Amino acid sequence: MIYLNTNSLNEMGIDWNETTQVIKYTVSALEKGVYSQPIKPYLRFNDPANRIIAMPAYVGGNINMAGIKWIASFPNNIKTGLKRAHSVTILNHPDNGIPVCIINSALISGIRTASVSGVIIQKYASLSDLNVFNIGITGFGPIGQLHLQMLHALLDDRINQVYLYDIAKVDIDNVPAGLRDKVTIASHWSDAYSEADIFITCTVSNERYIDQKPKEGALLLNVSLRDFSPDILKFDPLIIVDDWDEVCRENTDIELFHQQKGLKKIDTLAISDALIDEKLTHKAKARPIMFNPMGMAVFDVAIASLYYEKALKEGVGFLE
User: Fold this and answer.
1) Of 315, 319, 308, 310, whose CA–CA distance to 67 is shortest?
2) CA-CA distance, 312 to 12, in Å (whole number)?
3) Which of 274, 227, 234, 268 is nearest to 251 (CA)?
4) Window from 218-222, 233-237, 239-243, 278-282 with minimum mean pLDDT
5) What residues contact 17, with CB distance under 8 A and at least 6 apart?
6) Helix, strand, coil percentages, rounded to 5, for the chain
7) Among 15, 48, 70, 219, which residue is least crowded by beta carbons within 10 Å?
8) Biggest distance spanned by C-alpha atoms of the chain
9) How far from 59 is each of 26, 96, 118, 307, CA to CA, in Å?
């Protein structure tokens, strides 16, 4: 068995083209039914804002790996200088169940999150008539920073301007050097939102505040899932989810849209519809697109498998 930590992952680095390819392959496994993924349970105790989530899955095909991510999210940690998220991912051999890898790092979860966003962004960019894009990000902690790194790698010179907003100070040192001359630190989330062709929420907000009309044809990546008011539906966004049954619960925006505005599964596109079935091509013209990813365990297992294989080849990590 190999044990990997954050230093191990940093030693191997992040190739965003590689990680997004893994996500695309996993989406095709979803489409073909070559996977297993039970609904993930949420463990809550003491403060109801905190949760520890169990995310088991199996991905078939060339990945052919089973595993589980056990991730704790304690939003108030940031007030005491601790990281919000902590996770351990365990991979099991699909033939005999023997654990082959343990990854003790929340970084693997962040890489998965930004990589899933990346495949949606790549699809959006391929359909867009725009040559360059304005980027807006609200919340510039670890997840916001990973998203900006991913955008820099995937869009590169197609990035026109970047607008960053955080209720805390944005540290320009956390911006990739090649983008710093394109960055504006916004004084309000709406300043980043109104200019953005691609807008990403990466906050720990528990209150909905985004109720304004987005830029025409914008892509809204609702990564933090609890930022958009139900009033956003009056602007007729095309709503994409990774998994309706997962995302329509736990006080997400999608659950709120369902309860207050009658949004139903049939009103949305699944990620495989958007990326494989080409339904996005026919439905997205001039409408804002809103992607709501609850986080799928199959993606975590797939990305963890990628790093497990890289560790074997590169001799990274600790063998037991």
Assistant:
1) 308
2) 11
3) 227
4) 278-282
5) 153, 154
6) 40, 25, 35
7) 48
8) 56
9) 7, 15, 20, 15
pLDDT tens-digit series, residues 134-158: 999 999 999 999 999 999 999 999 9
Could you tell me the two tokens for 222?
Answer: 């609702």
Scan for tokens 């060339």, then name that residue.
62
**Topology agreement, domain 2-109+297-319 and domain 113-292:** no
Which secondary-structure segment (H or E) carries 106? none
Q: Where are the domains of the chain?
A: 2-109+297-319, 113-292
Q: In the structure encoding, which two tokens stand for residue 127, read together?
A: 């359909």
27, 278 Cβ separation under 8 angstroms = no
CA distance 39 to 94: 20
Of 52, 69, 118, 97, whose CA–CA distance to 297 is shortest?
69
- For 158, the token pair is 């197609």
Q: Taking the model in full, what pTM does it have?
A: 0.95
**C-alpha distances out from residue 246 to 8, 133, 184, 295, Å:** 31, 31, 35, 8
If we measure between CA atoms, which residue out of 266, 264, 282 comes closest to residue 274? Answer: 282
Tell me the CATH number for domain 113-292.
3.40.50.720
- CATH class name, domain 2-109+297-319: alpha beta
Q: Is beta strand 133-138 parallel, antiparallel or unpaired with respect to 85-92?
A: unpaired
Which DSSP symbol is given to 38? Answer: P
> Residues for the chain: how many in total?
320
Q: Are 213 and 193 in contact (CB under 8 A)?
A: no
Helices (DSSP H) in the chain: which residue ranges?
A: 6-12, 16-32, 107-127, 142-155, 189-195, 244-247, 253-261, 271-275, 279-283, 297-314
